[in-house]
Design a protein that fits this description.
Helix content: 25-40%
Largest sheet: 4 strands, antiparallel
Bound molecules: zinc ion
Distance between the termini: 44 Å
Shape: globular
Structural class: alpha+beta
Length: 239
C-alpha cells in the first residue's frame, strides 16, 4: 500500500534585486541533511554549492545564474526561516582581544535586510555631463562571478572583465545602447577609452556591493564589554 504523501505549504518571496515574487516551499529533511553536512565541513565552496542546490530545489526558478549574490543570500535566509524558523542562534566572538569569549546571539531573520551602498551611490554614472554620456551598471550575477578567474579578481584585468560584464546600458543624449546587443570587445574598448578619473567612478560601483545585513549589540557574558556587530554576507550567519 502506498504510504501517505505529505502536503507541502507554499510561500511567496520577493527577489531583492527586481521585486519579482517567487514561489517557494520549505526544505525537507533530505535537503536539510545535505545542508547540515556542508555547513559542518566549513568549506566555503561546499556550503555555496549546497545553498544553491537547496534554492534550486525549493524555489520555482528557471536558473540561478541571473541572480545577484545578495538575491541568493536573501532567498536562502527566507527559505531557512520558513523551513526551520525565523530564529537563528549563532555565536559571536567578543571584540576584546584578551577576552574573545564566544557569545550566543539570536538573530531574527525577519530583521535581516539588504545593506545599501554607502553615500549617494547610484547605478547610473554620468561620465560626461556636456555630452550627456553615461553608463548604467548592474550588480554581478552568480554567472558573471563564476566566469571571472578568482585569481584575477584583484588585478586590473579582472576588474575590467567584471566591469564589462556588468554594464547594463551605455547612453548619450540621443541614444541608449543595451550592452546585450554589443560585443564584449566594443564594451571593453568603450571602458578603455575612459579617463582614469571616469574609470575610478565606474569602479567605485563595486566597492560596496549590497549583502544581507543584520545589526546587533550584545554585552559579553565574560568581560561585560558592549559589542556592536554588523553581520554582513551570508557566511557571517553561519557561525
Ligand atoms: Zn568579552
Amino acid at each position: 500500500m502506498a504510504l501517505p504523501k505529505m502536503n507541502v505549504p507554499r510561500y511567496k518571496v520577493k527577489l531583492p534585486s527586481t521585486g519579482a515574487e517567487l514561489n517557494m516551499r520549505p526544505y525537507l529533511v533530505k535537503e536539510e541533511k545535505v545542508l547540515m553536512i556542508a555547513l559542518e565541513s566549513n568549506d566555503p565552496e561546499q556550503i555555496t554549492q549546497a545553498v544553491r542546490n537547496v534554492i534550486t530545489s525549493c524555489y520555482e526558478l528557471d536558473t540561478l545564474e541571473d541572480l545577484t549574490v545578495f538575491d541568493i543570500e536573501m532567498l536562502f535566509l527566507q527559505l531557512r526561516a520558513k523551513s526551520v524558523g525565523e530564529e537563528m542562534n549563532i555565536q559571536i566572538k567578543c571584540k576584546t582581544e584578551e577576552c574573545g569569549t564566544m557569545n550566543p546571539i539570536s538573530v531574527n531573520i525577519d530583521d535581516v535586510s539588504i545593506s545599501k551602498p554607502k553615500g549617494e551611490m547610484s547605478d547610473t554614472i554620468i561620465l560626461d555631463k556636456k555630452q550627456g554620456v553615461g553608463v548604467k551598471m548592474k550588480y554581478p550575477s552568480v554567472d558573471v562571478i563564476g566566469k571571472i578567474d578568482p585569481e584575477k579578481f584583484d588585478s586590473v584585468e579582472g576588474i575590467m572583465d567584471l566591469i564589462v560584464e556588468c554594464i547594463d546600458t551605455i547612453f548619450d543624449e540621443d541614444n541608449v545602447f543595451d550592452a546585450k546587443n554589443e560585443t564584449k570587445k566594443d564594451l571593453a574598448e568603450f571602458i578603455e577609452s575612459l579617463s582614469s578619473e571616469q574609470f575610478k567612478r565606474v569602479q567605485a560601483f563595486f566597492q560596496d556591493t549590497p549583502a544581507v545585513s543584520y545589526y546587533t549589540e550584545f554585552t559579553c557574558t565574560k568581560c561585560s564589554t558592549v559589542n556592536e556587530v554588523e553581520l554582513k554576507g551570508l557566511n557571517s550567519f553561519f557561525s
